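Are you able to produce any protein sequence you like plus the matching C-alpha cells because I've never seen that pairing?
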Amino acid sequence: MQTFNYKTESDIVKDEGKNRFSRDTDTLASGSGKVLAGTVLGKLTNGGKFKPLAPDATDGTQIAAAIILQNTNATAGDQEVVNLKRRAQVVLQNLVWPGAITTAQKLTALDQLAALGIIARMGV
C-alpha cells in the first residue's frame, strides 16, 4: 500500500486572525521551483515578490517574511499564491526550511516571523 504525505494549510496554521486577516495573495517569483505548503519565504527587496528563504542571500530573501499555504510550481513563471503574513500560530515541525539552514539561521528566521506576529509552536 502506498503512503502519501500531503500537507495542507490546516497542518500548518493552528490559529489566525478573524476572516483570514492573517493571509494575503502575493507573487511567488519565477525560478523559485516547486515550493511546498509550509515553506518559509523571504521577500525580494527589488520588486516585492517572494521566494523561499535563503539565509545567505543579500536580496531580501534572507529575512523571513511569510509562510506559503499551498503547493506551487514557480519554476518557469511567477505564480499567484496565498501567504500567511501576520498574527498567527503555526506548527513548528510542519514548516519547510532550506536544506542547508543552520540552527542559528532557523532561530533568527523564527524571531523574524515572531516580529510579524507569526508564532511557531510544537504541535500535532
